[in-house]
Amino acid sequence: MKTEFNILLVESIHPVARERLEEEGFKVDILNYSPSEEELISLLPKYQALGIRSKTQITENILKHSQHLLAIGAFCIGTNQVELRESRKKAVPVFNAPHSNTRSVAELVIAEMICLSRQLTDRSMKAHLGDWDKTATGSHEVRGKTLGIVGYGHIGSQVSILAESLGLRVLFYDVVKKLPLGNAKHMHTLEELLNKSDFVTLHVPEAPENINMITAKELKQMKKGSYLINASRGTVVDIDALAESLKSGHTAGAAIDVFPVEPASNKEKFKTHLQGLTNVILTPHIGGSTEEAQKAIGEEVAESFRRFLKNGSTSGAVNFPNVDLPTKKETSRIMNVHQNKPGVLSEINAIVSGTGANIEGQYLSTDEEIGYLVIDVNSSVAAKEIASSINKLSTSIKTRVVY
Ligand code: NAI
Fold first, then answer.
1. N or C: which end of the chain has fewer CB within 10 A?
2. What is the pTM of this model?
3. Which domains can be identified in the chain, with CATH numbers?
4. To test ligand 1's pocket by mutation, which of 103, 200, 232 has the most ligand atoms within 8 angstroms of CB?
């Protein structure tokens, strides 16, 4: 069964998303700005899927007026611009691209290690100002030094591989057991890692337990003359304590990309106690900001749309039970989202057996509020009848024949 899907992409999403979606036969319309709530409410009845970036707010009101909307794609990392709970209740999975920019962060960290150990940004600044400061004192190669990675996830592990290829020894600390890549060594405590590293780079998520992970105490646990890099979240480091440690000479340099308070836009002024300190690289949260990352985000979310609309897979959805499904050529597929109440599944199965169709496959994933059910049956005619009957159940939220 062929269904035509119309997709609206707003906020100048990378053109690769449109290309990929059109290759799949979807009809795509583009708006190069962030539409208001009112405009979206009037536009959305034409579309089954909506792609946004971080500015467009998807409110409860928008979702209330978009009953037929099947999916939302946040072509970015964060999803707090979307009313996630309400979209789940309306059976609208929300997809994002959490890992598309991780390589960009890893490369920045590697660049910063070399810049810090050669005092590159200070030397460059002086040369711009006409000062010729040629000296080897305090400049080092990174080869043979020890890098300590805190948080060995998508970014930390990539930093590990890249750093080893430059000849660094790599140590890591993670609260979850992780497979060490290459020759990297797992440290049992943060303190052990801090004691042994010439560079410490932080790649932990924003979480209450990670607020002020690095304070004056941890800075003291680091070697004298070592460097700190933070491109994770601003709240992880106590900035005032870092400023003191830099001023005292205990910390030889720092590269900080994220701050406890960051300007909301490029128009706002930015202030931190790290400004003006020697061998400190300050960047405006650009770790993941590359054109390659934008393209990768476009590809990743377009792929999530394809997999959900054409196949019913919800893997990667941030607000929805995740189901990763095989495509079955000889069957028809029905997807149903229902309220997670006792007895729903047996009612649905009774409907299917009433049509005489054979169930070729069934996949169910639930959370505390909803259930996501996918049924493969052997007849496309029965599939339509089944979907229409399931839709009439009082517990059903959304049902469609996928193919
Ligand atoms: P991830 O979820 O793949 O890895 C995070 C790792 O940290 C996990 O292995 C986790 O077990 C570990 N962890 C959590 N708490 C810990 C603790 N207290 N001590 C040690 N390990 C701990 O995340 P990913 O993709 O590697 O991202 C890491 C951070 O980078 C996130 O905070 C993310 O927001 C930030 N980020 C920053 C960007 C920028 O532009 N600067 C761009 C992309 C991500």
1. N
2. 0.88
3. 1-100+291-320 (3.40.50.720), 102-282 (3.40.50.720), 326-403 (3.30.70.260)
4. 232
